[in-house]
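sry for the spam today, last one i promise. C-alpha cells for design, 397 residues
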C-alpha cells in the first residue's frame, strides 16, 4: 500500500493561489502564514495529477463529452460512502457550488423573496442571495454547553414568513464542522416541505467526516427531504482540486429537477470542461486510500491543536472538535478582546491569516476559523505563534 506524504511543505508561490495572492488585500500584509481559504496545502493526489498529465499529453484540447462511465462512477462513490442510492439521471455538472447556489437562488426565488440561513455559516450563503437582491433571514444556530451547535426550530418558526422560498443548509456545517444527524435533517425537511421551501444542501465537505462520525445526505433522510431538495457535492475539498471546478448537483425528484436542470441546460451551465471530468474520475476510482490517509492526518492535526490549546492556552482558546472538514472553529472569547483587537492579535502579532468569526455572521463574534489542512510542522509554527502573540500582548504571563 502506498504511503502518502502530508508532511511535505510545498511552496505555492507563483501558482496564483488565492490564499497567497489575496492576502494583502484581505489582511493588509502579505507576510502571514495562510490558514484561511479552504483548500489544503497538501499535494493533490498523484493519481489525479497523472490522469490530467495523461490527458494533456494529447495535443488537442477541443470540446469533449462526458464519458459513459462518469455518472455511474459518481453514483457508486456516493452509495459506497454515504449509503445513498442515487440514479445517474438525478445528477448534473455545475461550475462550482457557490455558483450552483446562485443558480438555485435565481431559479427558485424572485427579487424581494427571502432566503433562510443559519449563522455562523459559510459567508457566501449570505453574499449570494444578497447580491441577487434577495433578503437573507437569519436563523442563528444555538450554541450548546459543550461548545457544539444545534438548529433552533422554535426560532425558525418565528423567523419564517411566506416570502421565505429557499433554505440554504451547510451539511456538514462550515465553520463548526458538524455532521447533522438524520432526526434533525428530517425535522428540517418536514418544516420546509410544509411551507414549500426548497432546501439547498451544500455537502462539499461530506467525504471528510472525522473521528468515526458519519455524513448524512439531506435528501436521503425522508421522502419529504428528497422532494424538497437540491444537493451539491464535489471531490474538490477532499482531493484538494478546487481549482479544477468539479462540482455536481443531485436532484432526486422530477418537478424540481425539470425546473433546475432545464435552466442549467438552457444556459449550458451543465456542460463540463474537459479536465474536471478527468480529475473526478481519477479521484473517485483511485482515491479511497489517499482519502483515508488524509483524514487520518487531519485528525492528528486536530488533536495537536486540542492538546496545544489545553496545555498552553487553557481557558483562552478553545477549539471545537470538527466532526468533518479540515477547519477548526476556535473559541477565542476567553481572551476577552474586541473584534479589532482579536484580528490584530492574529494578524499583526501572530502573523497568521485566519478567517475571523464575524465573517460568518451572528454568533461568530470572538471566534476564529483555523485551516488545519497543512503539514504538521506548519501547524506547530502557527500554534507557537499564537502562544507567543498572546504572551506578547500580556494576556498570558
Ligand atoms: C461550505 C462550502 N461550500 C462551498 C465552498 C466553495 O465551493 P466552490 O469552490 O465549488 O464554489 C466552500 C469552500 O470553502 C465551502 O466551505
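last one done:
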Amino acid at each position: 500500500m502506498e504511503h502518502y506524504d502530508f508532511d511535505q511543505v510545498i511552496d505555492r508561490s507563483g501558482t496564483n493561489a488565492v490564499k497567497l495572492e489575496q492576502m494583502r488585500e484581505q489582511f493588509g500584509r502579505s507576510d502571514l502564514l495562510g490558514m484561511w481559504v479552504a483548500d489544503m496545502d497538501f499535494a493533490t493526489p498523484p493519481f489525479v495529477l497523472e490522469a490530467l498529465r495523461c490527458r494533456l499529453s494529447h495535443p488537442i484540447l477541443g470540446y469533449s463529452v462526458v464519458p459513459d462511465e462518469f455518472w455511474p462512477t459518481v453514483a457508486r462513490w456516493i452509495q459506497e460512502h454515504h449509503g445513498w442510492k442515487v440514479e445517474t439521471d438525478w445528477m448534473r455538472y455545475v461550475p462550482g457550488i457557490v455558483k450552483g447556489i446562485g443558480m438555485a437562488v435565481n431559479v427558485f426565488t424572485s427579487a424581494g423573496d427571502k432566503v433562510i440561513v443559519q449563522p455562523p455559516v459559510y459567508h457566501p450563503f449570505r453574499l449570494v442571495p444578497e447580491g441577487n437582491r434577495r433578503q437573507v433571514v437569519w436563523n442563528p444556530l444555538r450554541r450548546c454547553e459543550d461548545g457544539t451547535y444545534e438548529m433552533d426550530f422554535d426560532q425558525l418558526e418565528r423567523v419564517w414568513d411566506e416570502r421565505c422560498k429557499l433554505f440554504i443548509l451547510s451539511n456538514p456545517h462550515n465553520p463548526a464542522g458538524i455532521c447533522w444527524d438524520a432526526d434533525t435533517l428530517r425535522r428540517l425537511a418536514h418544516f420546509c416541505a410544509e411551507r414549500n421551501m426548497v432546501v439547498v444542501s451544500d455537502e462539499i465537505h461530506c467525504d471528510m467526516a472525522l473521528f468515526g462520525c458519519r455524513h448524512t445526505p439531506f435528501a436521503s433522510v425522508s421522502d419529504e427531504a428528497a422532494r424538497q431538495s437540491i444537493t451539491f457535492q464535489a471531490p474538490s475539498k477532499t482531493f484538494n482540486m478546487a481549482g479544477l471546478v468539479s462540482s455536481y448537483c443531485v436532484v432526486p425528484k422530477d418537478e424540481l429537477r425539470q425546473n433546475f436542470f432545464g435552466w442549467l441546460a438552457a444556459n449550458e451551465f451543465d456542460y463540463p470542461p474537459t479536465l474536471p471530468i478527468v480529475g473526478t474520475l481519477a479521484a473517485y476510482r483511485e482515491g479511497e486510500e489517499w482519502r483515508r490517509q488524509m483524514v487520518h492526518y487531519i485528525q492528528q492535526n486536530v488533536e495537536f491543536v486540542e492538546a496545544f490549546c489545553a496545555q498552553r492556552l487553557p481557558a483562552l482558546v478553545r477549539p471545537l472538535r470538527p466532526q468533518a472538514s479540515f477547519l477548526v472553529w476556535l473559541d477565542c472569547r476567553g481572551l476577552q478582546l474586541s473584534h479589532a483587537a482579536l484580528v490584530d492579535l492574529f494578524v499583526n502579532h501572530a502573523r497568521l491569516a485566519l478567517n475571523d468569526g464575524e465573517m460568518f455572521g451572528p454568533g461568530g463574534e470572538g471566534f476564529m476559523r483555523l485551516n488545519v489542512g497543512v503539514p504538521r510542522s506548519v501547524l506547530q509554527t502557527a500554534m507557537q505563534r499564537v502562544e507567543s502573540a498572546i504572551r506578547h500582548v500580556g494576556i498570558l504571563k
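The longest strand covers residues 164-170. ok im logging off now
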